[in-house]
TrEMBL record:
Major location (coarse): nucleus
Pfam families documented for this protein: SAM_BAF
Alphabetic keyword roster: Nucleus
Compartment(s): Nucleus
Name listed for the protein in its UniProt record: Barrier-to-autointegration factor A-like protein
InterPro entries tied to this protein: BAF, BAF_prot, BAF_sf
GO biological-process terms attached to the record: chromosome organization
Length: 103
């Protein structure tokens, strides 16, 4: 799979306070829908992906139902978030709990 310029940029730096439209697969219209639902930042959508245990199928269905994303948009977003997690998200276990750290 060849990465687009948007994907390469997204995967090369931390999310910080980036708008949701910085995530590949999310343009202006989906960005507006996400913002209306309370997900204005890329980190908000990443948190939802993590809550769904990084399960692509569940996340894709959620995107399609919540912001009316099409199959391509939702898959592109999920796959990019999965790749982002491999680059920047660390999971630590502490006794009877765990903590996810965004680096």
């Amino acid at each position: 799979m060849e990465l687009s310029a948007k994907q390469m940029k997204f995967l090369s730096e931390t999310i910080a306070n980036k708008p949701v439209t910085e995530i590949p697969g999310i343009g202006v219209l989906l960005g507006h829908r996400f913002t209306t639902l309370g997900y204005p930042l890329a980190s908000d959508v990443l948190k939802q992906f993590l809550v769904m245990d990084k399960n692509e199928e569940i996340f894709v269905t959620w995107m399609q139902n919540s912001v009316r994303a099409n199959e391509n948009q939702s898959r592109q977003c999920a796959q990019c978030l999965q790749a982002y997690c491999k680059n920047f998200v660390v999971k630590h276990s502490f006794g009877n709990g765990s903590c996810i750290i965004l680096e």
